[in-house]
Prior knowledge:
Blueprint: E1 2-11, E2 16-24, H1 31-42, E3 49-56, E4 62-70, H2 73-79, H3 82-88, H4 105-156
Antiparallel strand pairs: 1-2, 2-4, 3-4
Helix pairs in contact: 3-4
Amino acid sequence: MEVQIIKDKTNPILKRREISIKVKDKITPSRIEVKGKLAALLNSKPELIVIERLGTKYGKQELVGTACIYQTEERLKQLAHEHLVARDAPKVKEGEEAPAQAAPAAPAAKEAEVKAEPKAEAKHEPKAEAKPKAEAKAETKPKAEAKSEEKKKPEKK
């Protein structure tokens, strides 16, 4: 895998480096591989790198993208989008421990799990409410029949 840095800009206000890259390889490398290669080239920690965009060029064996290298983890947590940090984290299978790189992404993953649990509970509650609604509809039918009977009585007189 050959990584070429197209543009390297230091942003002192946001305390990060913004980098445009081009990656040439016969197969499409994973984001984690690109992140590791960038860390080695730029003498940085992989935990502080966030790949914002990475896409292939049609008909070519190369990727073009952008990445940001933050100076501190606090700055990364303040500025970087959580879904991008989680996307760049290595996937952990059940029963295995997370590698050292996944430490910044672990809180984001836990928050996603916590957010997912209330949604699952909320889905179960409407199903429970659906039964009383069906019973309420059953109760309204006799009322409708009673109204139709009332209409028929004046006609008979």
